[in-house]
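Hi support team,

I submitted a single chain yesterday and got back a structure, but I'm not sure I'm reading the token output correctly. Could someone confirm the output below corresponds to the sequence I sent? I've pasted both exactly as they appear in my results page.

Thanks,
R.
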Amino acid sequence: MSKKVVCYGEMLWDCFPDKEIPGGAPMNVALHLKQLGLDVQMISRLGKDAYGKKYLDFIQSFDFDNALIQIDEEHATGTVKVHNEDPENIKYTIVSPVAWDFIELNEKNKDAVSNADAFIFGSLAIRNKSSWETLYQLLHQPTLKVFDINLRAPFYDFEKIEIMLGFTEILKINEDELEVVADYFGIAPDVKACCNLLTTHFPVKMVCITLGSKGAMIYQEGNIFQHSGYKVKVEDTVGSGDAFLAGFIKSYLEGKTPDEILQFACAMGAFVATKEGGTPKYGESEVWKAIGVQ
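Hi R., thanks for writing in. Yes, this is the structure output for that exact sequence:
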């Protein structure tokens, strides 16, 4: 039986100067997990508008289960203005408030999380009280909790992030975010020192630090495992971190070693960087082929 994963948070449109692409980190992760063969659901909220209908049509093309996606009668579907002048360092302007700021708690999403093998969430969807309170209740459900910290200034609140860390078993963070977290806790931005603090003061068992084109590392029980990544021709980096996390979760739930987890997660991140947009359609064999591994 395939593993069951529930993702929580934003569904939005990435609006480039010349095109619009459906996105949102947790939704991207969910679509990658779906393509990797997992049983996935998404807890989010769309507006009752053209963008919302178009998004539902898009995920239907993946045969994605939309039973936990709510429709908002008042607020618009989320949009983000993407500034991609530098494809290696894309910037975002995130519109607020929008439908995913108002995700409601109900028995269906509580049951889905409690019956899942993993629950994935980030920090962006907590910017509004409604979605924060819903997430807080869902964090009390008994399942593996994966926090993709995904800091997006100015939409993060470290008081809430500390509460979220109090439920987290696996933390994904990039090297820039690690510096922000280290600064908040008043320690040097050293990987081992920061990870030691996180695993000592919170129930975090594993920290994954992504390093962009330099690969990634895992900190577990005082040990550091590292992968240097794969060299590819970059189309854009939108969604690469989300693809990485999907590869990470799939491998982790399969009981793979940290080195094996990093190998596949880095392959996923590199593969998506060779494609336009964050959620291309593919089969797992295409991932290895694209990065030159048969």
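A quick pointer for reading it: Residues 1 and 73 are 37 Å apart (CA to CA). Let us know if anything else looks off.

Best,
Support desk
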